[in-house]
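FAQ: What does a ligand-bound record look like?

Like this one, built around pyridoxal-5'-phosphate:
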Amino acid sequence: MSDFPASLALHERAQRVLAGGVSSQFRALGVPHPMAYVRAAGARVWDADGHALLDYTLSQGPCILGHSHPEVVARVQHAVAEAQLFAGQHLAEIELAETLQRLIPCAERVRFASSGSEAAQACIRLARAVTGRQKVIKFEGHYHGWLDSLAFGVAPAFDGANESAAPLPWCEGIATSAAQDVIVLPWNDLDAVGAAMARHGREIAAIITEPVMCNQGCIEPRPGFLEGLRALCDEHGAALLFDEIITGFRLSLNGAQGHYGVTPDLALFGKALGSGFPIAAICGRARWMAPLAENRAFHAGTMNGNNACVAAAAATLAVLERDDRAALRRIAQLGAALRDGLAEAGARHGHAVRAQGPGPMFHMAFATLPKAETYRHLAGDDRAAYRDFCAGMLREGVRLIERGLWYVSAAHTEDDIAATLAAASRVLGRLEKRGPVR
Ligand SMILES: Cc1ncc(COP(=O)(O)O)c(C=O)c1O
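The answer part, i.e. the structure of the complex:
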């Protein structure tokens, strides 16, 4: 018997009509089963059974200001009262692009899209159009959306082998021909990238990376890694692509590229840009955006630049920028306190808890290694234990992402963090012990 009977009943009903009972595959991973929700406001969501849950999923990242931020809602309401979609240019769209141009170092030109997956695809197309080359280097454990061209090496399993894995399709149904144009390398290993570029440099259109490996382990780049990628791309005439779908506006309003001082040729933003409304942005140097500007490469979308999404993004950026970016400072402080508190609670209860990441987002795991610097360092993480922890936290009224990533919003308070740490301590106390971090 589930502790969440209304959610379970809705999930069973959904399974009879929605494929797998969900509209996005990640939602199928929900513990104890995919949950159903009825309302959300600030740092909380209410599930179908009436529980108010403190939310650290933030809808997989977008709700950086918290749910239904009043300024976002008001601006969207005002915008849609005027029009939903011109499918033509409008002032708010141009102003939003100008804001990104001012904030994002590489954003000499901007193009709006509706999801991160298609923005990644558009960046790859631009890199191929400019270079006339086909191959793309991506990294183990990095997720850039569900489309075929980058759906390799997303979560490869390793059996201790040290050589780089062959491009492993992420799931069934991926075009095997797409594998020919993808080289998957270990992340944070500049020597491996240098060797691949020495061998294949003239065939490489782009290197795509998350500037922080957020989706797995929340691993920051080793000193010099991003700079090294920049230098290798310059040397070999390839595009450097930053996938800032998660880092975008969490690490800094100038993106990870502003935070680390390394400017890519192309970058994609999404998630937090729209506070839960489906908008993404392709930003790039004019030279790399030229195939779009000159109508040589095609990127389109009926819904792109629609009034609601543009209004939501404009409101989100305005709030984040206000008072000298106070909201982002607060998110970083609260996130760091939560991350450190979880590590401390783990140690206190004799668990091998690793909590790492910049703070505005971080990753928690029951781990064999105290610090992860590459995807392969995550191989010993006890993912089943973490799912047990998530289930326990849900019963305590805290909603978490089952693969370990935590997001903090501007709506969370010090009291929320304290309550979450108290809940975590209770759950860790009840969980079976798995030994201290080595
Ligand atoms: C780093 C990264 N890139 C791209 C995507 C794909 O974005 P979307 O889900 O909007 O298609 C995601 C989604 O989680 C992501 O985390």
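Follow-up question: can I read anything off the structure? Yes, for example: The CA atoms of residues 91 and 97 lie 10 Å apart.
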